Amino acid sequence: MAALFTGKVLMANRDEDEVETERELNWALENKVLLLYFGSGQCPRCRRFSPLLKDFFLRLTDEFYVERASQLVLVYVSRDETEQQQRAFLRSMPKRWLAVPFGDAFKRELELRFAVSEVPVVVVLKPNGDVIVGNAVEEIQRLGPACFQNWREAADLVDRNFRLAEDFDERSRRSFTDPLRRLKYKLDKKKRKKKKKDKTKEGEEEG
C-alpha cells in the first residue's frame, strides 16, 4: 500500500506531523485495509455522513469499544476550500486519521485514479492497492462496523497479534515510558550493587 504514496507526504494526525519516509509509510499502512475518504467539512452530504464514519472508525479502532484495534487506516482527501477549514474538520475527527496535506496536487491524482466526481466517497483498498469497494458510503450507512469483516476477508490480511489499539500514539507511549523503565533499571542496579557491597563488607568483618 505504501507504494501508492511513494514520494508523497501524509499528515499523521491533527497536530500535522508529517509521515513521508518509506519506512514510516510502510509502518502506517502495511497489512491494513485502507479507506480513502474524499469529503469536505462544508458539503451538506458530508456533514451528515462524517459523524457516521467517525463512529464507524472509532468502534473498530478505539480501546473504549474494542480490545484490539482492527487493521484499518483512513486517509482523508479533502475538498475543503481553505487550509483552515480542513484543519477545523480534522480536529473534530479521530486523531488516528491521516490526511493528504491541503493544496497537495496528489489529491487531484487520487480523484482521477478513483474516478471521484462528487463527495462523500469512501474507497476501500487492499494492502496491495487493489479496490475492494469503489464507494462504501452506502454500505457503511447500512451495515456499520459489520462490513469491515467482509473487507478484511477480501483483503486477505495476515492476522497479526497487534497490541491494544495500535496506532501512531504507540511510538509516543514507548518514548514516554522508556526513560522511566531505564531509570527503574538503574535504581534496581544500584540496589543490587549496594546489597552485594554490604554482604562483602559483612563477610570481611566476620573474617
How are the secondary structure elements laid out?
Blueprint lengths: L9 E2 L6 E2 L2 H8 L3 E7 L4 H18 L10 E7 L4 H9 L6 E2 L6 H8 L7 E5 L5 E3 L3 H7 L3 H9 L13 H38 L1
Parallel strand pairs: 3-4, 4-5
Antiparallel strand pairs: 1-2, 3-6, 6-7
Care to describe what's here?
Residues 187-198 have a biased composition (Basic residues). This is NXNL1 protein. It comes from Todus mexicanus (Puerto Rican tody). Residues 187-207 are annotated as: Disordered. One of its GO terms (cellular component) is mitochondrion. Mean pLDDT is 82; it is low at 162-168 and 170-187. A 5-stranded mixed sheet has the order 5-4-3-6-7, sandwiched between helices. Strands 1-2 form a two-stranded antiparallel ribbon. The protein is built from 7 helices and 7 strands. It has 2 domains: 2-160, Glutaredoxin (3-Layer(aba) Sandwich); 174-206. It has 207 residues and is an alpha/beta fold.
- Measured between the Cα atoms of the first and last residue, the distance is 71 Å
Structural class comes to alpha/beta
CATH topology of the largest domain: Glutaredoxin
Question: What proportion strand?
Answer: 5-15%
- Helices, by number, come to 7
Strand order of the largest sheet: 5-4-3-6-7
Give the helices and strands as they follow along the chain.
EEHEHEHEHEEHHH
The CATH H-level superfamily of the largest domain is Glutaredoxin
Average pLDDT taken over every residue: 82
Principal-axes shape call: globular
Low-confidence stretches: 162-168, 170-187
Described by strand count, sense and barrel closure, the largest sheet is: 5 strands, mixed
User: How many runs of DSSP E, i.e. beta strands?
Assistant: 7
The CATH class label of the largest domain is: Alpha Beta
CATH architecture of the largest domain: 3-Layer(aba) Sandwich
Taking all Cα atoms into account, the compactness measure Rg is 23 Å
How much helix, percentage-wise, in residues? 40-55%
> How many separate domains make up the residues?
2
